[in-house]
Amino acid sequence: MKVLKRHSPKQSIVQKTPVSAPRPPNSPGPAECAFAVRRLKLPKSFCEYALTFGPGELAGFFTIATPTRTACDFELEKFDRDLHGPSEERLLERFGSDSEMKEFLFFCSTGGGDFFGWKLDSQTEPRTSEYEIHRFSAQLSKVAETFSSFVHEYVFSPSKDRNWKPDKTFAPIQIER
For residue 67, which of 32, 46, 111, 132 is within the disulfide window of CB 3.0 to 4.6 Å? Predict the structure, then answer.
């Protein structure tokens, strides 16, 4: 993945910069990132991101959940499970039935109420375990073929349709102990 020059507390995301800084304390280790979550082997580009950053806010607006060493609301499995929730409390109800939503593993949300997830039956690159990424907003739409393209071509791309001019930063989630 082409990212990352570390700064603190926000980190600037710069293309083609090698990653050499140590992992933040709440980021997953290689073992946590390698496992499958709900039938999905995590995409390689997502694992590279998760190992470098851990959970946090990308471009000042997109909150990304990752596997973590410490329990928190933005631990990937908990984040996905909470969105699916019990049928009487499902946050995703407006997007489709419970069975339709189970076809997705959610990893991202925005302050505007949008959710992003991998479509489990739509693998785009089997060698690197990449899957289609869909946006759940006013309507369901496919936004990327890989996690890397989601970051660089969707999150970091200005868009007149979305009234969006991103900053290229990352702010880690502060996990209270």
Answer: 32
